Amino acid sequence: MTIKRLRLALLLMPLALAAQSLAEFEKKITEFTLANGMHFIVLERHAAPVASFHLHVDAGAVNDPKGRTGVAHMFEHMIGKGTPSVGSKNYEMERDALADIEKLYDQLEAERNKGFRADSSAIERMQVQVKVAIDKANAYVDQNAYPRVIEESGGVGFNAGTGVDYTVFHYSLPANRAELWFLMQSEWLRQVVFREFYKERDVVREERRMRIESSPQGKLQETLIATAFSAHPYQNFIAGWGSDIENLRVTDAREFFQTYYVPGNMTVAIAGDVDPKQMRRLAERYYGPLAARPMPPALRTVEPKQEGEKRVEIESPSQPIVLVAYKRPDARHADDAVLDILSTVLASGRTGLLYKDLVRDKKISLVAGAVANMPGSKYPNLFMLYSVPAMGHSAEENEKAAYVVLDKLSKAPVDAAALDRAKIKLRAGVIRQLDNNPGMAMQLALYHVSYGNWRKLFTAIDDLNKVTAADVQRVAREYFGKANRTVAYTVAPKPASQGGAK
C-alpha cells in the first residue's frame, strides 16, 4: 500500500468507526420528555454496576441580569447547601432566621439608596444587625449534610460548574442507589434553599479576586473580552464584576432561579447500569410534579459588526502576555468545524504552526497557541491567539510574527500533513469523550442542548473529515482581518517620572 493510500485509509477508518458507534449507541439510548418539558437521555452501559447523572441547565453567565453579574455562578455553590429536609438542624427556625436577614437587608438597602442623603450611622448599625442575623441563620446549618448523604451512599464526583452558556450538576452512584439522585436533585429544584447565601457570596467574590484581579492572565483575558464585545453580554466574564457580586441578594438569585430553572430549560443525561423503563418511572415520580413554566426569554442583544481594530493594554509587573482575538460565528455555523481545525493547526503541541514559528524557530515566545471559542460558543464569539514573549523580545514582535503565520494560511493551502494531524487529534478528542459514564452523560446533554440532537456528538467527526485545505484558507481569509480584530497586551508599569501612577 502506498503512503498516500495508507493516509486515506487512516482518515476514513475513524469515520466508519463513528458510524458504527452511532448505530450501536442508538440501540442503547432511550429519550423521553416529561409533560412539563424536562428532557431525559438514558444510555445503557452495563459494564459496571454504577451510573452517572448529569443535569444541564441552559443558562450561564451570559444570562446574568445587568447589574447582577455573578448570580448564575451562585447556584453551583447553592447545590451543596441542601434542601429543607437535608442540611438544617431545625428548618422551621432556620427558615424564619433566613427571612429575618432579608427584612433587615431591605432596610439597609433602602437607606443606602438615599445616596448622599443616607444616614451613615444608621447604615453602620444596620450592617451590624444584618451580620448578627446571618450568624444566627448559619448556626442552624448542618454543614456538608447534602454531599455527605450522597457520599455515604457510595456517590462520587459530586460537583457543579458554571460556564458562560450553561450550568451543570453531576455525580455518580452505585446503580442500586439510582433513586437517591432522583430524590435529592428533584427536592433541590422543588424547594431550593438559599442557605449560607451571603457566606458563599463572599467565596465567589474571593474567587474573582484570586482568578482575575490577582492574575495578570485572568485580568488581561477579561479586559480583552470586555473590549471586544461592545453590546453582547459575553462582555461579562463568568466571575461577574466585583461590585455586582458584593451586592447580590437572595431576591436576585430567586428571580434568576424562577426564570431559568424551569423544566423545559433543563436536560438530564444518565449513563450506566440502568433500566430505561425504571429511569422513566422515577423521572415521572420525582420530576413530573415540577410545574411547567414559561421558557426563559431569548437573548435579544446582537453584537454589532466591528468596524475597525480595537486595542487595549493593562499595566502589570508580570511577564508580558499578548492576546489577539477575531470575531467568529457561533458553534452551529457551517464554518465551526473549519475553525476547530484551524485552531489545532495553529496550536497542536510542538507541531502547531505558532509553536514552530514563534517558539522553536524564532525563539521569540515561551508559549504560543490558539483557542477556537472564547468565552463561549452558543452565540457569535472570539477566536483567540496568545503568546508569552521570551526574555529580550517584545509583545509587538510576537504580535507581528503571529500575523505572518495567519497571512500564510490565508494565502496558501495548509500543508496536507498538518491538516491530517489536526483531524486525527480532534477526532481522538471526540472519541475520548466516550470513554466513561460521567463524560458520556455530560456530552450527551451538552450536544442535545447545543445542537438539538445528541447524535451531533458522532456526526461531528464527519464534519471534521470533510474540511479541506481550501476551506481552511477561505476561513482564514474571511475572519482574520484587521477590522475584525481586538488586541490586548500587558505592559510594564511606567515610572512616575514617565507619566505612570504617582
State the main characteristics.
502 residues; alpha+beta; Cytochrome Bc1 Complex, Chain A, domain 1; 2 domains; six-stranded mixed beta sheet; 18 helices; 48% helix
Question: How would you characterize this protein structure?
Answer:
It is a single chain. The protein folds into 2 domains: 35-88 and 141-286, Cytochrome Bc1 Complex, Chain A, domain 1; 310-492, Cytochrome Bc1 Complex, Chain A, domain 1 (2-Layer Sandwich). It has 502 residues and is an alpha+beta fold. The radius of gyration is 25 Å and the shape is globular. The model is unreliable at 1-20 (pLDDT under 50). Helix 12 (336-346) crosses helix 15 (416-432) and helix 15 packs antiparallel against helix 17 (456-466). The protein has helices at residues 3-28, 74-78, 91-112, 120-138, 145-152, 178-190, 197-213, 216-228, 242-246, 250-260, 276-286, 336-346, 353-361, 395-411, 416-432, 437-451, 456-466, 469-479; strands at residues 29-33, 39-44, 50-57, 156-162, 167-174, 266-272, 310-315, 322-328, 365-374, 381-389, 485-491. The N and C termini lie far apart (72 Å). The strands form 2 sheets. The chain has a 6-stranded mixed sheet with strand order 1-2-6-3-5-4, with helices on both faces.
